Automatic annotation (TrEMBL):
Pfam families: Baculo_FP_2nd. The lineage of its organism: Eukaryota, Metazoa, Ecdysozoa, Arthropoda, Hexapoda. Keywords: Metal-binding, Zinc, Zinc-finger. Residues 1-56 form the PHD-type domain. One of its GO terms (molecular function) is zinc ion binding. This is PHD-type domain-containing protein. InterPro entries: FP_C (IPR057251), Znf_FYVE_PHD (IPR011011), Znf_PHD (IPR001965), Znf_PHD-finger (IPR019787), Znf_RING/FYVE/PHD (IPR013083).
Length: 146
């Protein structure tokens, strides 16, 4: 495909499409640095607008007229971030972390519980042994009095 601005062929790794005018461009032709282009999350590339389309939208939000094409774009901030998609993405990541932490915590609790149960059983056995020694000593003392 060709770049709308410079009319040269675009490598797939360098392409960005404006959702306002539906034109494909090199990220450089869209006034993006390589760093800026790489920072755009994949989920936001599908919502990206070129500077002229973004300026039209900003003019509309600042009191100018908004074309019907942009009236439903309420979830895209002026920073060109789809906040709903970003929220959904972060919620999914946090749910994944929460689930992993819960599994790790449950595993640790099971290990501690097992060790604790073993320690209690050892204490019970020691007490039984001590009780039999006490009984043995008492019997020995009682027999020595005879």
């Amino acid at each position: 495909m060709d770049c709308f601005k410079c009319k040269k062929i675009i490598a797939e790794r360098d392409v960005i499409k404006c959702t306002g005018c539906n034109m494909y461009m090199h990220y450089q032709c869209a006034d993006l640095s390589e760093t800026e282009f790489k920072k755009i999350l994949p989920m936001n590339k599908i919502k990206w607008k070129c500077p002229p389309c973004k300026n039209k939208r900003l003019a509309g939000t600042l009191g100018g007229t908004v074309s019907p094409k942009f009236k439903d774009c309420t979830t895209t901030s002026i920073l060109n971030v789809d906040t709903d998609a970003l929220t959904e993405y972060m919620d999914a990541k946090l749910d994944s972390l929460r689930q992993q932490w819960q599994e790790d915590l449950n595993s640790a609790i099971q290990k501690v519980s097992k060790t604790f149960a073993q320690d209690i059983n050892s204490c019970i056995l020691l007490r039984k042994n001590d009780d039999s020694r006490v009984i043995h000593i008492r019997c020995t003392n009682d027999l020595s009095k005879i």
